[in-house]
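Cross-posting from the chemistry board since nobody answered there.

I work mostly on the small-molecule side, so proteins are not my area. We synthesized adenosine-5'-triphosphate and want a rough idea of how it might sit in this target. Sequence and SMILES are below. Is it possible to get a predicted 3D structure of the two together?
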Amino acid sequence: MLTAKNIHQYYSGSHILRDVSVSATAGRVTVLLGRNGVGKTTLLKSLMGLVPIKSGTVEFNGHAITKATPYERARAGIGYVPQGREIFGRLTVEENLLMGLASKPAGTPIPAALFELFPVLKQMLNRRGGDLSGGQQQQLAIARALAAQPKLLILDEPTEGIQPSIIKDIGRVIRQLADVGLNGQRMAVLLCEQYYDFAEELADDYLVLERGAVISQGTGAEMVSRGVRQMVSI
Ligand SMILES: Nc1ncnc2c1ncn2[C@@H]1O[C@H](COP(=O)(O)OP(=O)(O)OP(=O)(O)O)[C@@H](O)[C@H]1O
C-alpha cells in the first residue's frame, strides 16, 4: 500500500533522515520505534507531505506521491494523527470530526462506525474539544483522522500522556482497524511509539530508527529475540 524508499531529510543542514525505507500493508500494524529525537516524527511528516523530502520516493497504492501535498495525500486515502493531537480546542467534538472530512465532498456525513469505536465521542458531540481529557482528545484525534475513511492510518505517539485504561482502548481500536477496518476493509497502520510494551503487542512489523537511520527491522514476532527493547530503552 505505502512504499517509501531511500528517504533523506535535512533541517537547515543537519542530516535528519538517512536513506530510510519503510512500507505499510493492509491488515498489518507497522511500528516505528526509536529514542527521543531520532527522526520518527520527521519521517511521518515526510510521508504525509508536511515536510518536503530532499530525496527518495513515496508510492501509495502504486501511484507516486513524492511531490503530493498533504491534502492530496489525504484525498488519496492517508489519515494522520499528529503528535500532541492538535485538537481544535474551541470547536466542538462534532466540528473537529467534520474537519476530518475536509478532503471529501461537501455534505459527506461522519461515519456512524466512528461512534461504535469511540462511544464517548457520541456522548460529547457538543462539548468543546478543549474541555475533553487528554485521553478523550486522543480518541477524537484518531476519529478525526478516520472520518474520511483512509486506507492507511499514520499515528504519532498516540499513548503519550494518556492514562492506562484509554491506552488499552486505543490499542484495541488499532488492532481492529488493521483486522477489519472501519467498514470491513482492512487498513494499513503505521504507528510511531515510545511505549515499548504497547508497540510490541501491536506490531506485525517493526523498524527502529537511530540517528535518522534504520538499525533494525523485521516482524513483530522477532522483536524480543532481536533485543528491540534494549535498542530503545533510555
Ligand atoms: N522544524 C525543525 N527544525 C530544525 N530541527 C528540527 C525540526 N524538527 C525537529 N528537528 C530536529 O530533528 C531531529 C529529529 O526530530 P523528530 O521530532 O523527528 O524526532 P523524534 O524521533 O520524533 O523525537 P520525539 O520522540 O522526541 O518526538 C531532532 O534533533 C530535532 O531537534
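Reply from a structural biologist on the board:
Welcome over. Reading the output above for you: Residues 121 and 136 are 8 Å apart (CA to CA). DSSP finds nine helices and ten strands in the chain. Happy to explain the C-alpha cell format if needed.
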